[in-house]
């Protein structure tokens, strides 16, 4: 029985580590991509990353404490990058019209 508990703990630790690495990578990459699309300065991207980490931390804490308690990535959604890309190109096109 003790060996089974040890195996369960190892699987739980590995799943937690995998979830954390995915969430961290996603939280780092998306602010950089979105900042590049909107031609933000390095300092503005830094502040965007800070706010992203803050919101991800708070939302992960709340979902673990009050929410569903499942290892679901509560970070920035990659599917929104397409929307931000369209918005960036639409605003860039408006700047070039000189109306």
TrEMBL record:
Tagged with keyword Transmembrane helix: yes
Chief place of localization: membrane
One GO MF term: xanthine transmembrane transporter activity
InterPro entries, alphabetized: NCS2
Membrane spanning residue stretches: 20-39
Any one annotated GO CC term: plasma membrane
Keywords of this entry: Membrane, Transmembrane, Transmembrane helix, Transport
Membrane topology listed for this record: Multi-pass membrane protein
Family of the protein in this entry: Belongs to the nucleobase:cation symporter-2 (NCS2) (TC 2.A.40) family.
Protein name from the UniProt record: Xanthine permease
Species this protein is from: Bacillus thuringiensis DB27
């Amino acid at each position: 029985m003790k060996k089974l508990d040890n195996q369960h703990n190892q699987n739980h630790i590995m799943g937690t580590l995998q979830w954390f690495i995915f969430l961290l990578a996603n939280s780092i990459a998306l602010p950089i991509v979105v900042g590049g699309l909107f031609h933000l300065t390095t300092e503005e991207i830094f502040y965007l990353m800070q706010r992203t980490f803050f919101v991800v931390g708070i939302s992960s804490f709340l979902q673990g404490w009050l929410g569903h308690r499942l290892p679901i990535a509560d970070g920035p959604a990659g599917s929104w990058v397409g929307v931000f890309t369209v918005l960036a190109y639409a605003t860039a096109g408006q700047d070039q019209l000189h109306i």
